[in-house]
Amino acid sequence: MRSFTSSVRALFFSAISICAVLGISAALDVSPAHASPIYITASTDYAAFNYSRATSAIGPNSMFGASAAVGYQAWPNLAVELGYAGFWTKDSALNALKVKQPVNASVQGGTLDAVLKLPFTDRFALLGDAGISYRVGDLTQATTSVRGWAWGWRLGGGAEYALTDAISWRLMGWYDQSDYGAMDGALGASTGFALHI
In terms of CB atoms within 10 Å, which of 25, 85, 96, 137 comes out highest? Predict the structure, then answer.
C-alpha cells in the first residue's frame, strides 16, 4: 500500500512539474541553437543515496555511475528526454553489531524528463528539468540482501555550452525523490555531452 501511495504521489508531483515547465515554455519565444531536433546525451554521474536504514550501516552513501538519454527538441526551448542511469558502489560499513562488513549497492533504471532551455547567448543556456523515474535498488551486506523498486519524481537544473553546432557540454544538479525499500532519495550531479544527430 505504501509503495502504491508513493507511486501515485510521485506521478502527481511529476504531472504538476511538467505542466509548469510547459507553461513557461509556451510563454517564451527563443530560436533553437541547433538545426537537428534529435540528440543523444552521455554523462558521468555522482549521487548520494540514503541506504543506512536498510542495513543499520554507518558508512558512505556515495555512488558513482553513468547515464545516457535520447532527446527530442519538441519546441524551440523545450525538449523531452528518455534516459537510463546506473549507480554502483562497493565499500565497507559497520553493521548493527558494530562489525565492519562489505557493502554492495546499486541503483538502476529509466527516466523521462521535460527539459527547459533558456539561452543567454548563441552558445550558453541555462537548463531546468522535471520528470519521473523508475528505478530498482539493490543492497547487500553480509547475509542481508534488500531489493526495492519505485516510481519517483525528479527536479534539476544546470547549464549547457555549445562547443560546436552539434556538440554541447552539460553540467546538471538534480534531486530524485523515491523509496526503494533498500534506499530512498538522492541528491546528484552529472556532467557530459549532448550530440545533435
Answer: 137
